Amino acid sequence: MIFPRRNKSTVGLDIGANSLKLVKLDHGKGGYSVSAIGIRELPPEAIVADEIRDREAVIFNIQSLIDQTDPKIKDVVVSISGHGVITDKFTIDKKTGPEAEQAILFETEQRAPFDIDDVSLDYHIIKTDEEVNKMEVLLVAARKEYLQMYLELIEDCGLRPLVVDDDAFAIMNAYENNYEIDPTRVTALVNIGFDVTNITYLSEGLFKATRDVSAGTREIYNAIQREFRLNPELTAKALKGEMSDSIDQDMLKATIISATDELISGIEMAFSYFKSQNKIDNIDWLVLSGGGALLPYLPEFLQSKLSIPLEIANPLRNIDYDPELFQYLQPEKIAPLLSVAIGLAMRKAR
Ligand SMILES: Nc1ncnc2c1ncn2[C@@H]1O[C@H](COP(=O)(O)OP(=O)(O)OP(=O)(O)O)[C@@H](O)[C@H]1O
Ligand SMILES: [Mg+2]
Question: Core-most of 4, 71, 160, 306, by most CB within 10 Å?
């Protein structure tokens, strides 16, 4: 009897303050392919920054999203970011397996800016230098309490959290798997969400640092709602550029631009901190993703304010997909919104 060979697949679930994104990727020999995708908007106050304010609404919407996309889904890869997570980087002697874990734990205890008993740890080996026999380790520590709350939420949706990743790594994963990284340019991956903007820096072709800025498109949402006196549904439409026939475009542009002060100064501050910490003169390239990359007028305005060449990420660039799966959504248009979910779904299936 011949059994059909089933591809291993992983589901990435990105729980954002504005919307839930789900991507299921099959991990085949020839690369990745999308086998399910869904986006579902949340009520604007259900999650604010990294605080879940309306747990019932979040659970209901996650379950509805699963039902809509693939009711058989049980195992998911999720991510956390923001105040619950701390990252740090250090170099130690090259080791593998349990020995590496021991050494990383030891190093963490020596330098931890937090009580090691209060956090769950994970690490990524950024690079190993064979010549000097050293490896560079990136440490991710999540507050146990925060992580626990998150895991319980996922379990209460009837799902199993396979892996809890960090937004920044997911964004980097999605970028690395879709683009040739130019090692000569310092690149900032800027993922503009509703409440948080994650910045991930790459230099010499490798991960360098990550930073979250507490600003996103919510300010713009509020400004549009106020200025045009729209209900939440129409405000969301206006932000997606779906109201071009019914609202004045010059006024829309002016409203969007006037609500970006916090976002732009947050990004500028993060950039200057990164440059001074790492003795880097210039950030050469910006790769924009998240919902902010889709807002009318915003990418152009950012580029002109920051004076850095900017490209909009397409995390579906190297991935096979059937456009029919996206139903009414246009894949090439909404792709930047899926960066985190795609990066999560690229995690190896267990
Ligand atoms: N097709 C779309 N579906 C959902 N949101 C969209 C769409 N197009 C543009 N957006 C905009 O994306 C913005 C939210 O971005 P994003 O989805 O990246 O944030 P989030 O992940 O929900 O929030 P956060 O990361 O801060 O928790 C909103 O302002 C929304 O208007
Ligand atoms: Mg997000």
Answer: 306
Give me the chain's average pLDDT, please.
Answer: 91
Provide the CATH number for the domain formed by 84-142 in this structure: 3.30.1490.300
What residues line ligand 1, using a CB cutoff of 6 Å? 16-19, 39, 41, 193-196, 216-217, 221, 236, 239-240, 290-291, 294, 334, 337
pTM to 2 decimal places:
0.91
Q: What is the dihedral of CA 171, 173, 174, 178, to 10 degrees?
A: 140
Distance CA(41)–CA(58), nearest Å, equals 10
**Per-residue confidence (pLDDT) for residue 48, from 0 to 100:** 92
Gap from CA of 31 to ligand 2 centroid (Å)? 25
Find the mean pLDDT for residues 323-346.
95
Is 299 a residue whose pLDDT tops 70?
yes
- What is the CA(97)–ligand 2 centre distance, in A? 33
Q: How far apart are CA 27 and CA 346, in angstroms?
A: 8
H helices of the chain, where?
55-69, 97-111, 144-156, 167-176, 218-228, 232-239, 249-258, 261-278, 298-306, 331-334, 339-345
Give CA–CA dist 275/130, Å, rounded.
28
Average pLDDT over residues 116-141: 85
Answer whether 209's CB lies under 8 Å from 203's CB.
no
Residue 5 has pLDDT above 60, yes or no: no
Q: Which of 307, 269, 315, 318 is nearest to 285 (CA)?
A: 307
CATH of range 180-312; options 3.30.420.40, 3.40.50.1110, 3.30.9.100, 3.30.300.30:
3.30.420.40
**Cα–ligand 1 centroid distance for 261 (angstroms):** 19
**What pLDDT does residue 337 have?**
98
Closest ligand 1 atom number to CA of residue 334: 1
Q: What is the pLDDT of residues 14-39, one digit of tens each?
A: 999 999 999 999 999 889 999 999 99
Strands 47-48 and 51-52: antiparallel
The ligand that comes nearest to the alpha carbon of residue 50 is 1
